[in-house]
Write a structure and sequence with these properties.
single chain, SWIM-type domain-containing protein, OB fold (Dihydrolipoamide Acetyltransferase, E2P), 19 helices, globular, alpha+beta, 690 residues
Length: 690
Amino acid sequence: MRVTPPARPRKLAKVPFVELADGRLQGVVSSGSDIGRVYVSSVAAGTYEFACSTNNNRPCGGARGTFCNHIRALVGEAVLQYGAGRVARYLKAETAAEEPDAQALTDAMTAARPPQGDTTAAAPVFSRFLRHLAYLELAPTTAPLPEMQWFPPTGSAAGGPQDGSGPDTGERADALTGTVDGLDEVLAAVDAFDQVLVAGLLRPRPAQAAGLSGLARAVAGSPLADRVAEAAEKAAAGSAAEDHFVALAAARTALLGSVHDALAARAEEVTGRSGGGATAPGPDGPDGTGASKDDLDGAGGSVEAGGTGGSGESGSTGGPDESGSTGGSVEAGGTGGSDEADEQRAANLLAAARSWLSDLARRGWQGLDHDVVAGSAQVVSAMLPVPGLRRLAVLLDGFAAELAASCPGAALERIPVRRWADLWARATLLTLPGAAHAPATGTATGRLLPLGVDVQEHATAVQAQVHAVFEPADGAAPRLVRASVSAPKPDTVVGAGLWQLLRPHMSLLAAAGEGRAMELTGMPVTAEGDLLWSDVHARPGEPADPFATARVALPAAADAVAAPLDRHPARLAVPVFLEGYAVRQDDDALTFTVAGHPLAVDTGRVPAAGPLTPGAVARSGACIGLLRWDAGTFGVQPLAVETTVRKKAVAVHAGAWAGGTTDKAGVRAEKAATDAVKVLRERAGKLLRT
């Protein structure tokens, strides 16, 4: 699910940065006469108190008693980026119009005769703008970011292969709707613990103690038992230290790992393929969480320079006060110096991240405020340039953005309880040294046949993941693999514009867009089936129709195995091919009926960065997709469909624009994104180097 709506594309020349944060609409507005001078403008929610000054804190001459032109421009661009309704709700501005526009919002706020505030917010807002620009300075990576699966993009019988050589998926579709033994009990224990995080653990109540003890009972027969029992007892007493939070996160992860394994076994029944339920070799850890006993023992130890300090019985994290705020600090910047110094710096950053996550657990989702959430910013900025910390940094950045958009927590009408607990638990375990490491365990030489492209994104990161069948040159059995490329990004780069950030760094995207195979020679690959892509090890091959691959090669391919930490229901993404289904549409819900059994279609994960649309899916007769499990049921995410357009059968792919396009809509979207990136790079070139 997506907690915060994505930003909308807009021109950035006048207002390069706008955000709804810290209880204000705030941003940076160009002066119009000097690229090196910008104005920091803001309007407070509720009171509409306004401020405007240059980036070096000189007051704006136009902001005297009323909104200046910079503030009016800021409101207009905020409406373009977020929509008038969202801006009005955030600022608590009421207008007479049912569908307000920027002018109506401005009129409503100025009619209240708002006071003029001081410019104390200018420095932190301008600092955030510089951080926003710095995303364009960070290098993309082809190492997989599994946690991006939590961030979807901003957008009759199923027959087997036509030649009859493969299995009939439809005959086994009933396996997707059958009861999984023990599933409800495990999820009940997880849900009870997740409710503990809603109110937080500063002053636990009896209901929270029950949720903690239930989690401990659920893992009583595992190697985690003693550690989790101790952690539950300390947390119920309000004295949990960081190592106790790590143990609780490991227990929750282990339980959901067992759910993953049971669901993966069901998916194997449906596809007739093997391998998806297996676990790849990884760090030794109790119940396959990837967290070893030594890791759990050392999680709360003393770390200098922005670390956690001694944890002790009180659960102190570098000196939090009673409200749970942390006193640790971390300097931003890249790594430098010796390997030993780099390792120490990485350890300090991991400890600082763990400290922040522990503060979140103490405060709870209802205790969120902007000061608590802002505690992650320095840590994330320091982590992002470090390749070994990129995975955790991207997760924390997306998580913190959701939390910031939801502040204050006490006013939330609906809390995404399981989602935030998922992100918290995964981030907590990734703070353990080595937990995010997924080294190459071999090389791949042979033919790669793309099936489709999955896009994942949050405000400041995007990942494209190509699912493919790999046919080894030595004649070994084919298997399913993935290849990923990701890049940090400003939140205003969305839609088809995402491809220009990714395309130069992986030639496979062009091959997938063109329907072409790739010939691999010595491509590094992990035990989980992730190709660590390098164009040095690949060259374009012959044309290869993904639907032919899905009909002929996919049924015989072994599924990828799961890394220990990645055993989670949300990480299930099993390539499947469906055809001959009936389509039913109820309002916005789309369902394929496969062999008499309904299968929900997740069109919400269809990216705006390609020509595939929910309408095309609804008119389709064949589909390449990813079998997923969400909200207690299996569903399919379309990657490509065969449909009819103007009485002509065509294939429509979500990743068709990955390598470039002549499609008019795609060309317009790419041009808009190119202009946006050009403006931001121009600003970055001037402001980040002065």
